[in-house]
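Example record

The entry below shows one chain as it appears in the dataset: sequence first, then structure tokens.
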Amino acid sequence: MKNLRAVTKGILNRVEELSGKSIQFVRDENLPLLATLQIARNGAEFHVLRYQPSNDPLDYLIAYQAGFLLRMLENPPTHRFDFAPSPEAGKWVEPLVAAGQPLDAPDRQMLPEFSKIVAQWALMNLRSFPVGMRIDQWIASECQELLELQASSISLQQQQNVDLLAFRKGKLTIPTTLMGSIAAYALFADRLTGQGTYAIPYGAAGVLSYGEQLLKLWETVPSGAQHDCELVDQWAEAQGLSGWYTWIPYRP
């Protein structure tokens, strides 16, 4: 990819040095996320970073996604793990979604599929936000050239997250206990960027305390990459998600 900043090129060089493979970039207009990195496996020649079309430079998104791979590769091979969500997680979400309200026939019919989507979303947040906050802290500290792009991307992510407070299908809504990850990220983003307003909607919705609990755990667990699985596990326990996923040894 052309016109990358020196700091971004340095990160890509580090990826290639540690993994022995470079990153290939793929524009994907249908991607639901801003960007995602597929790690090279089973003899693949490249890691693949897919990204949404944007007029903004991609340096921050590249650094952020590469950060997950770099943190894993910082560990010795015997301590590298993949996060594997349980296919049963949707069934475990169903009673949380249905709790405390009478559901009519259409809502009951939508409940299994809605719960499956919520479970996938909650587990994606569990895997990405606590470690992603470590990466954002690293970028803010070590990659000063990317601060403006980081702030812009965080603002966009916050806009998308806050919309979920009002997300519903019929009477079905996301359980408040599962809002903790995005509330914690809003608190973190306020502190990192000095914005001061990202967490306000979560306070108004009555879910900020869940985020405060997770952020406190984030601050307590040591920040080294060797503690990333522990960090995720502690967030899972706090949200009632323990047993909804497994760690499996990473195989390149």
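Notes for this example: The two ends are 24 Å apart (CA to CA). Residues 35 and 191 are 24 Å apart (CA to CA).
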